[in-house]
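Reopening closed ticket. The problem is back. First fold of the pair:
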Amino acid sequence: MTAPLLSLDGIDTYYGPVQVHFGLTLEVRPGQIVCLLGGNASGKSTTMKIILGLLRPRAGLVRFDGQDITGLPTPQVIRRGIGSVPEARRLFGAMTVRENLLMGAYARSDRAEVLRDLDKMLELFPRVRQRLTNRAGTLSGGEQQMVAMARALMGRPRLICMDEPTMGLSPLYVDRVLDLIATVNNEGVTVFMVEQNASLALQIAHYAYVLQTGRIALAGPASQLARDPRIQDAYLGGEKAI
């Protein structure tokens, strides 16, 4: 079996005296879309912070491509090949869309290749091309999500981490964003996505974990979890959750 591209092993995380993760362990293998599901306050977004170096766990290891990256500063994590599409997009609202996209390549020095990648992003995200000279803060939520995805891809990541990519989007843009995630994955980028909408995430994922109060409640191939009658209980924290 192929070695994991990303792994979290025995992660314990705290905010002050409050423990958020309890021995969290998961894997993301190359070429997969892996989703981490869970309700509010389950620890999903904290998991993303651990991976990206925004928060250091009290115990456990984060490995990327076999190397320990636990607690590395975020710029170093990005340079190692992990891209980030944060919750609520977090674009530079006063800057143009083009400037936002180029910010995604800030760590690169191959200018000619950066410009070629910019053209590629505009082919992949035609809506973004239409808004290239607009200030990012004037775009709709769905358009901003596309810009955030394209910005992350400008860094040529091997793994892209997406935090709640469908949150706050209209149904039309939800479907479009999911299609784009699948397209990006088909082009060779591994995807780890945190998502609250289980039914949507399981449509495109290969493997899924369900996080409940800092512990993995369910895990397995997405197609199996989609048929599992326990998924809604585990996801919502109901009485039948495992």
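Second fold of the pair, where the issue appears:
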Amino acid sequence: MSNSPLSVQLYTVRDALAADLPGTLKRVADLGYTEVELFGFVELADEYSRFLPDAGLSAPSAHARLIGQDTAAIFAAAKKVGVSTVIDPHIDRELWKTRGQIEEQATLLNTIAASGAEHGLTIGYHNHWWEAENRFDGTTGLEIFADALDPAVVLEVDTYWIEVGGVSAIELLGRLGDRVRLIHVKDGAVTRDEEDQTAVGSGTLDIPGIVAAAPLAQSVVELDGFRGDVFDALRDSFAYLTALRVTA
């Protein structure tokens, strides 16, 4: 398991952030997290550049749609906040139906990665279920995509959505190897219903096996949905993963 600090994707607490950004960051830090992963940060770069340090947090990674977007504004905001890795979190499901479509999207992201490197930024991609669900001669769309990416482009594998797509996250992580630099660690009933997600360690996924399969990857906790107080889930996830590191 990686020794990188545990991070949390702030999309998990999006409602609280919208109501009170500095207060929410402090609540996340009080749970024990020292790093977070941003989303929707471009318009909030001034606020994050102030309130993250105030809370004792840093944001080494962030999500932003990159393909077809104004990357200059995204890169400027990332630099201002202190983000070093910008991850495209979504390429539309309709663009994963053929090898040609997949390779075309990889080419576009490669071009963006070259531009990002000029700003000192690493570019990555985060999957959903359809990149695993769509297969070509037994190979997942995500692996075809990875093969077409420049080696400088990193992967953030959402291990939960990979399982929803019908693929073993442990086996996929093994095949992708050190291309995977971050993993979204989440748990639950492995359905498309986001409300079926639970605190890490209380669902059906083999979390110890997953984190062991990506020893170079930073673990980023995320819940897309939760039936309860999401801060309780973040607290329990942190406790579980911290204890797992002690016993690993």
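Update: turned out to be a display glitch only; the data is intact. The two ends are 7 Å apart (CA to CA). DSSP finds eleven helices and twelve strands in the chain. Please close again.
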